[in-house]
Design brief:
By secondary structure, the protein is mainly β. The protein has no helices and eleven strands. 0% of the residues lie in helices and 56% in strands.
Amino acid sequence: QVQLVESGGGLVQAGGSLRLSCAASGIPFNMLTMGWYRQAPGNQRELVATISPLDNKNLADSVKGRLTISRDEDKNAVNLQMNSLKAEDTAVYYCYARRLKEYWGQGTQVTVSS
């Protein structure tokens, strides 16, 4: 089993920045593909970004150039640096991990005011 603990959500004005972090435990971190998904009210959960154990990154087109995903192997954590935030980035952000099966964090709210 993998446990995921998220931190860093909150309220920010449009154009501002936030940094989300997710600490993983239970399986060696270097075996996990990590990532972030988000779900806005009335919408389906959607991919934001993933990063493989070899640091290969996949980002949604809507966030390219604004959001950056990275791994911190020392802290067994994945970070999502979010810059130039827009109102449409408002959602609950879920940490994601995959190693043979998928694991999800409890979610953290990000609200961008316009």
